[in-house]
């Protein structure tokens, strides 16, 4: 069965307003008629009915129909307000498979609220700023992102052209896509790299080209994306055993970290514990499998 990402891609093409032909789907997704039929059955099993209509030129068009028996999707005023005010926080989804549908949904929210309410809310939003310093620009990475997601779903080896951040050189090699990680304004591909012989993370904004191949791969039976990154700060993967890391801050350092509140109040890792000692010093303990970004 196609996963949520594949369904979202189909949903973009099989919109109730227009629909798509098999030629459209093949050009956008590279799916065969047989594969499309298989996914149609999967969609119907999960309650996404697709209507088949004959076009004036003899081409068959498919479009999504509203599932019968479901009430219209509506929002209370406070729910619509919350979605509208959350727009600055959703910009990180640009160029992902949900971006276009998200834009349509927010347009409906704006229409629901009406101009007077929008003017009032926009005045409120002027007092709220969401910043993302150093956030990656994925505006032209849509095709590459679609390819690696398709490679993950169909378990296909994917050839990528990746530009190294350290050397600036571009290199083409094969990866086995296992998942995507969003971390501090950047999207990363977690994959097994056949060039390096291990699992690594790759910044999506540095993947200049990506193309799925006919070759299949089998992901590790026990692979879990969350567990793969549990032993690190951020996106650095390690297969090594977890080790306790203790960072102790002397009392003299307290004024530079807001008397420990910056460390004690922040959530740096799921395994962390913070101990504040009587002399004013404090200790941060975490269990890590890699020391990347720890500075040891």
TrEMBL record:
<dbReference type="Pfam" id="PF13280">
    <property type="entry name" value="WYL"/>
</dbReference>
<dbReference type="InterPro" id="IPR051534">
    <property type="entry name" value="CBASS_pafABC_assoc_protein"/>
</dbReference>
<feature type="domain" description="WYL">
    <location>
        <begin position="145"/>
        <end position="211"/>
    </location>
</feature>
<protein>
    <recommendedName>
        <fullName>WYL domain-containing protein</fullName>
    </recommendedName>
</protein>
<dbReference type="InterPro" id="IPR026881">
    <property type="entry name" value="WYL_dom"/>
</dbReference>
<dbReference type="InterPro" id="IPR028349">
    <property type="entry name" value="PafC-like"/>
</dbReference>
């Amino acid at each position: 069965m196609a996963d949520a990402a594949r369904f979202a891609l189909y949903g973009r093409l099989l919109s109730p307003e227009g629909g798509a032909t098999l030629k459209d789907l093949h050009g956008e997704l590279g799916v065969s008629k047989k594969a499309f039929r298989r996914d149609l059955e999967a969609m119907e099993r999960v309650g996404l009915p697709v209507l088949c209509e004959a076009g004036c030129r003899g081409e068959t068009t498919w479009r999504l129909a509203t599932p019968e028996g479901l009430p219209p999707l509506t929002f209370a005023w406070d729910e619509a307000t919350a979605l509208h005010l959350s727009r600055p926080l959703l910009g990180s989804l640009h160029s992902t498979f949900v971006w276009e549908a998200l834009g349509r949904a927010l347009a409906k929210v704006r229409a629901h609220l009406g101009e007077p309410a929008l003017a009032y809310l926009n005045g409120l939003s002027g007092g709220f700023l969401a910043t993302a310093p150093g956030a990656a620009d994925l505006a032209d990475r849509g095709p590459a992102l679609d390819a690696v997601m398709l490679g993950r779903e169909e378990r296909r080896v994917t050839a990528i052209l990746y530009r190294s951040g350290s050397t600036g050189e571009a290199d083409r090699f094969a990866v086995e896509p296992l998942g995507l990680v969003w971390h501090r304004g950047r999207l990363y591909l977690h994959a097994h790299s056949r060039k390096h012989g291990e699992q690594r993370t790759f910044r999506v904004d540095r993947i200049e080209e990506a193309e799925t191949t006919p070759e299949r791969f089998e992901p590790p039976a026990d692979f879990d994306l969350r567990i793969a990154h549990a032993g690190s700060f951020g996106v650095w993967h390690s297969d090594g055993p977890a080790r306790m890391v203790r960072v102790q801050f002397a009392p003299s350092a307290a004024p530079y970290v807001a008397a420990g509140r910056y460390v004690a109040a922040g959530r740096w890792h799921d395994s962390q514990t913070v101990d504040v000692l009587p002399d004013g010093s404090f200790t941060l303990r975490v269990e890590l499998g890699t020391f990347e970004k720890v500075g040891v």
